[in-house]
Amino acid sequence: MKLRSFIYWSAQTLFVRSFHFVYHLFTRMRISFVIPAYNEERRLPICLAAVERELSRTPCDAEVIVVNNASTDRTSEVARTYSWVRVVDEPRKGLVRARHAGLMAATGELIANIDADTMLTEGWLGTVLAEFSKDEDLAALSGPFIYYDLPAFHRGLTRLFYVAGYLSHLMNQHILRVGAMLQGGNFIVRRTHLEQAGGFDTSIEFYGEDTDVARRISKVGKVKWTFRLPMYASGRRLASEGIITMGLRYAGNYFHTLVRGKPLTETYTDIRDGV
Fold it and tell me: Is the pTM of this model over 0.85?
């Protein structure tokens, strides 16, 4: 009888301690979702619904900020219909300017940079909180896109690009020591590390913005890329401009930003106009 009571007490104690550990793990860090949005009145609700589902699966201290980036459609009005979303206006058009405006408005230690045409996968938030909680030196975390609206063959090609990019990431981090890789629209940074690295470079319009952050933040902390942090995203840019063309363009800007500190391509076509 005493043995049974001891086993019951031990199991109960272990459960309570485990519960408090997990609770502490997922609530001690505030996470700010920053979502730049330019003419995204149709896709923004899908993105926000996915964020809301993840927050219900993994309750934590979180805030959601939508940065209306000079939209000419109803993006701002749509975002303001969500009582739990804070809307910030950035009248100067530009992805990096919008990310910076969101960072300035955010109050969290973790800044989750996602895009308005993305959808969090199940377990995404839990993975993020666990990774940052177990390693205080982790400065940035990122994973790949899954392009849900591309044909299977094209999704396979993007997978190959990611594998090549990951190998380059490992080589750059551990051999050449010239930077790392982040996926724009699916990367989380620790605010203190980003500020130490100089924040976002608002002179960059589009291409290379993620690599620029990775290159600088890798000097003050660890950068981790993992295939265990996928995110659904629209492949409309790849479909519009060609998957091979875009792959080569991204690769060229990636290496140029790593070596020269600035992207190779300074201009871009905004496929959100009228899409």
Answer: no
